[in-house]
Write a structure and sequence with these properties.
Belongs to the class-II aminoacyl-tRNA synthetase family. Its EC number is 6.1.1.21. It is found in: Cytoplasm. One of its GO terms (biological process) is histidyl-tRNA aminoacylation. With 430 residues, the protein is of the alpha+beta class. The protein folds into two domains: 247 residues, Bira Bifunctional Protein, Domain 2 (BirA Bifunctional Protein, domain 2); 89 residues, Anticodon-binding domain (Rossmann fold, 3-Layer(aba) Sandwich). The chain has 15 helices and 16 strands. It has an eight-stranded mixed sheet with strand order 1-5-6-11-10-9-7-8, sandwiched between helices. α1 packs antiparallel against α5 and α2 packs across α4. The chain is elongated.
């Protein structure tokens, strides 16, 4: 039998056998709803970009020295030829590309955008880390104000707390301005060069290209060297303006009651990143506890070919990671809502009638019906399985009287309702 690709999951309807939270379509939809509610109340608008982009966009937008570009991109082929496209591994670069290409600057600044959808990385499959995974992504474009940074962080916090999570923490740092980062990179080159032979091959390359990336290395030998050298944090290298900006962000969050911990070890090694950087963690899901993160990327638009700088800040969290955290805390997900009404015919003659009544009822409420005749017991059992609130059967008597007897499947209450009064009843009782 043909099976789904490694590192992917089917999102299944309620009641599917062996259904896990991260594979439940209703759980993903629940997170989408909460994110939409929080973000759109704050003025964010939904945007959707293609699931594949020009390879050049991803290489510029994510960075040629990253593991994503060097090892994890899915390349798209068509008609037997290389298309020069890749499945998107993240959401920020595509959204900034769409902003530039479609002249969204005309919508005013700051422009708040959000999206959700699948991302793709060819990485080792682990719990909560898939090759097709799903993210919620938020971007704020056109403002360099510390208030935009603080609001972005607060909105991420608002979503996870609205989902009921309590064991989450925000680790907040800053990578300063380009000149601060340049000074820090020179410090790191001087620090790591004497230990060149002990570094992984990836980190030897990073030492020349971008030494800050060494601090993100997954290599145990690299991390041992980092621990031995007691590397000074980026925060020690912040200039006056970047330090003031960082303090303003922290002050806003404190004023709003958004909890955070200052983490000097957080770095974002790409050239277009500026100042604020943070991660969202949940210790209950294991050593790799990050649920998501974000940062300021004022240099990204120019990296993608824009003439002028477009200040931006954004974040993303992994839906599968969030669902693991919710499962760890024992949080339940809203059950799929069944129809308000389920109808069945007692004989073949009246199947078309119940279909017509169900379609009529859908003007005001959810309604479903049986495609075939059913006995009364079968009909009510099926209505209960589907989670219907009210159910009724129609035979010759009901058709002749133009009246049905609705049964409340929770209380057992029965109510006689004429066909032409069905929608009025459902408006008041669905």
């Amino acid at each position: 039998m043909v099976k789904r690709p490694k590192g992917t999951k089917d999102h299944l309807p309620a009641g599917s056998p062996g259904l896990s939270p991260d594979a439940a379509a209703s759980a993903h939809a629940h997170i989408h709803r909460i994110a939409a509610q929080v973000l759109e109340r704050a003025g964010a608008q939904f945007i959707a970009t293609p699931m594949f982009e020009e390879a050049d966009l991803v290489q510029r937008g994510v960075g040629g020295s990253t593991d994503i570009v060097r090892k994890e991109m899915f390349t798209v082929y068509y008609a037997g030829e290389h298309g020069g496209y890749v499945l998107r591994p993240e959401g920020t670069a595509p959204i900034v590309r769409a902003y530039l290409e479609n002249g969204l600057k005309q919508l005013g600044a700051p422009l708040k955008l959000w999206t959700h959808g699948p991302m793709f990385r060819a990485e080792n499959v682990q719990k909560g880390r898939l090759r097709q995974f799903h993210q919620v992504d938020y971007e704020c474009l056109g403002s360099s104000d510390a208030l935009a940074d603080a609001e972005a962080i607060a909105l991420m916090w608002d979503i996870v707390t609205a989902l009921g999570l309590k064991g989450v923490s925000i680790q907040l740092g800053s990578i300063g301005d380009p000149q601060d980062r340049a000074a820090y990179n020179e410090y790191l080159r001087g620090l790591f060069t004497p230990h060149l032979e002990g570094l992984s091959e990836d980190s030897k390359d990073r030492l020349t290209r971008n030494p800050m990336r060494i601090l993100d290395s997954k290599s145990e030998s690299d991390q041992a060297i980092i621990a031995e050298l007691s590397v000074r944090p980026m925060l020690d290298f912040l200039g006056a303006e970047a330090a003031a900006h960082f303090e303003q962000v922290r002050q806003h969050l404190t004023d709003w009651g958004v909890p955070f911990e200052t983490d000097p070890s957080i770095v974002r090694g790409l050239d277009y990143y500026r100042r604020t950087a943070w991660e969202l963690h949940h210790q209950g899901i294991g050593a790799k506890s990050a649920l998501g993160g974000g940062g300021r990327y004022d240099g990204l638009a120019q990296e993608l070919g824009a003439k002028d700088e477009v200040p931006g800040i954004g974040w993303a969290f992994g839906i599968e990671r969030i669902l693991l955290a919710m499962e760890d805390e024992g949080l339940s997900f809203p059950a799929a809502v069944g129809p308000a009404l389920y109808l069945a015919a007692l004989d073949d003659e009246h199947v078309a009638l119940v279909a017509a009544l169900a379609r009529q009822a859908r003007q005001v409420a959810g309604a479903d019906f049986s495609f075939r005749r059913r006995g009364a017991g079968q009909a009510f059992k099926e209505a209960d399985r589907r989670g219907a609130r009210w159910a009724a059967v129609i035979g010759s008597n009901e058709a002749a009287q133009q009246r049905l007897t609705l049964k409340n499947l929770s209380s057992g209450e029965q109510v006689a309702v004429p066909f032409d009064g069905l929608n009025i009843f459902l408006k008041e009782n669905a």
